[in-house]
């Protein structure tokens, strides 16, 4: 793969910074970061893009997870089983990622962008307070199934995983948005780590780009987590929707051949 220009590298770093911030606040940073990698590194294979995205995201979720845990103190009876099954699911998904052809990669990302973008747009009131819908072992079982399913998706593709965790924890389990965000960050950290366990030995991580983006993602994640805990996520919704909309236009144009 040819070396990217300094302009491309700078834009990827900016995308990683925005992704870290968005991911820490509302989830879905991969909806910013992975499409940016697809656009900026057109000759890279899908598995290289996924692996490099995971490296950068792991840096951001590491710092945002610690910040959320220290400030929100989520219940370990839920997030530990969630993390464990998410880790297992992500490893299985990462193994499957080697079989995903490039020609189906962008259409899948486009569909995820549209679905999550519309959900965030039309559900601004979701997760205002915690009203748990399950209790006891049933609650834990639902959390574990959630972790396994979304973990597999994250290992195989990845964009929108944080949002999927938040949406499921809020919509299915009944957590408030802030509590769901804290648990989502911890689960997403586990899925990123699991995917790297598979990708790193295969030599598919683009370390130079990945580490640069990782530093930016870490900075964005730290800032986003602190802002989310202090002020909530309402103010960032429009920013998230605008960024996702821009990528829908860009990736959609590629899929439909508008830009060719």
From TrEMBL:
Q: Which UniProt keywords apply?
A: Cell membrane, Membrane, Transmembrane, Transmembrane helix, Transport
**One GO cellular component, as annotated:** plasma membrane
Q: Which segments cross the bilayer? A: 79-98, 104-122, 134-153, 159-178, 190-215, 235-259
Topology in the lipid bilayer: Multi-pass membrane protein
Compartments annotated for it: namely:
Cell membrane
Signal peptide (UniProt feature, chain positions): none
Q: Per the similarity annotation, which family is this?
A: Belongs to the 4-toluene sulfonate uptake permease (TSUP) (TC 2.A.102) family.
Q: What is this protein called?
A: Probable membrane transporter protein
